Amino acid sequence: MSPDKKTLVKMYETMSRIRLFETKLQEFFAAGRIPGFVHLYIGEEAVATGACAGLTNADKITSTHRGHGHLIAKGGDLKLMMAEIFGRKTGYCKGKGGSMHIADFDLGILGANGIVGGGGPLALGSALASKYSKTNAVTVCFFGDGASNQGTTQEALNMASAWKLPLVFVNENNGYGISCPQCKSMAVTDIADRAAAYDMPGVVVDGNDVLAVFEAVTEAVKRARHGEGPSLIECKTYRWRGHFEGDACTYRCDEELKEWMAKDPIPRMEEKLLESGVLKKKDVEAIRARIEQEVKDAVDFAEGSPLPSPAELLEDVYA
Amino acid sequence: MSKKTYLQALNEALRQEMERDDKVFIIGEDVGRFGGCFGVTQGLFTQFGEGRVMDTPITESAIVGTAAGAAASGLRPVAELMFVDFIGVAMDQLFNQACKMRFMFGGKAKVPMTLRMPQGAGIGAAAQHSQSLEAWFMHIPGLKVVIPSTPYDAKGLLISAIRDDNPVVFLEHKLLYGVEGEVPDESYTIDLGKADVKREGADVTIVATSLMVHTALAAAEKLAAEGISAEVVDPRSLQPLDKATILASVEKTHALVIAHEAVGFAGPGAEIAAMVAEEGLEFLDAPIRRVAAPFCPVPFSPPLEQAYIPGVDDIFNAVKTIR
Ligand SMILES: Cc1ncc(C[n+]2csc(CCOP(=O)(O)OP(=O)(O)O)c2C)c(N)n1
Ligand SMILES: [Mg+2]
Fold first, then answer.
1. Which pTM does this prediction carry?
2. Which is the catalytic residue, given B129, B173, B214, B254?
3. Is 3.40.50.970 the CATH classification of the domain at A5-298?
4. Is the CB of residue A160 less than 8 Å away from at least one CB of chain B?
5. Could you confirm whether B129 is annotated as catalytic?
6. With respect to CATH, is domain B196-320 assigned 3.40.50.920?
7. Where exactly are the structural domains of chain A?
């Protein structure tokens, strides 16, 4: 299925929003203004964007430690995200979660996750709930190449297939789990090959081509919605930044990074939209200006928000 | 003897044990050229090669299980998990497999493995990367639990842990990695189950572990200014637990405060308090006090995290309620 004009523009905007939001985070982290860890998604925007563009608010996602892109692509509010990352009381999780633990259940965002491989089994439960309650919702489980080696991930793939759950596994293969290159952590070249073991479709796509991701995931979502069970979509991509901000990246070479930066998904999409006349140069500029303003507003909101007070520590431990 | 950080002391212990015994090897995520999540295995890959410093996939269950199986097969693995929080993924391989083999098999198996894991809050890493889980491990028969607070202890205890013929969980604190102290250059051991009196005192015993030893020492300093003489006892291992040293101290001071970063409810302090109540109640002239983290997950936001971690004033105030 090829996307309509509105969807095309929306995807371009979403990728730009992720990029600009995270570029701001990168700056703030370097300036020592953000506590804790930050794992940036810069370079991988096409995956979350393409995967979420066809979903509704009723559909669910499970995210990872590198979750900002997933949240934004699923409609996450930049202000609430920024405030959370700044540890403010007004943030998505009242400042209790931070960058690695943002959730918005109203938008079907079941949470970023600090545990690699933690999302697969949760996605099973989410998909089971949809099937059980006949809501017709589909769950998309994002996970990395590193996460694909966890037992939890393989258990989720197996059970989703055995139970024909409405689940789409979107693997973000950026080639590394921290310093460990894919070739040292698994014998297969394509993680999608593992789908065969569970008798589900396994597809490899160019993860820096938002349209390719959109098409593959949309097809898989359709199958899932029709009760035909899960699929595994492997998106080959690359993270531009270190594993976390502050990582010196001694385990990979500059040429590799340059090669991938040349495949930047955002200009690629922009060119397509300009060529086909969907957008004009001035539209592109207007979109950028609007998103820059959104990010600025988010920063202002976060900075103007109060920090939580210690009295809140014992709140929300139990329902 | 020279000044070394806690991290360097651990690194030296690993290197010396690997030089001494070729059955000792390291296994974990990013422990190779990367040098480990916090840098503890730095340089070991270069010296010993990938045959003895093994980078695994992200697969904690397999890391712990591989260590257990290799240990039961005659090797002496030192496994690392990046954060203690990830033990949840691997718990079966530890508590049902590694720790039960010897007993279940009627004494046939020997599982000499060491599992190193950093604990603790203080770096804004939030609920899944900041916990102190020593009480979980204390509850497992067959497992030893070591929790060093100083560079000197870290080195001697790690060497003992590696040479021990049982599974040993070795709990480091991420805020201690940069702490410096005198550490002998040569190899030495510290018996597991031997507490250390970190400061002598007469009026109150503060039993503290890990980072809290340093907090307790600061509190003791503050108490001294008010004329209260506090003795700080560091058990150094929680299983085995050096009851004698703790009881002797309480017999002298007649009062006990226990400080740890794990949550208070059913925390390690509960066991220590119960032990003193059972075996040394007559020594006490005041109620036992516990200083611990509140019963909630570790929060992200800095003011919440700071409030979560027991501080000098918390220990000071607890002592003041009984002295
Ligand atoms: C259970 C568990 N093990 C290890 C870690 C530490 N860790 C955080 S991210 C990461 C690498 C994840 O690699 P991948 O799944 O490929 O995702 P990427 O970071 O490349 O997006 C590791 C090892 C963790 N958070 N949880
Ligand atoms: Mg990866």
1. 0.98
2. B129
3. yes
4. no
5. yes
6. yes
7. 5-298
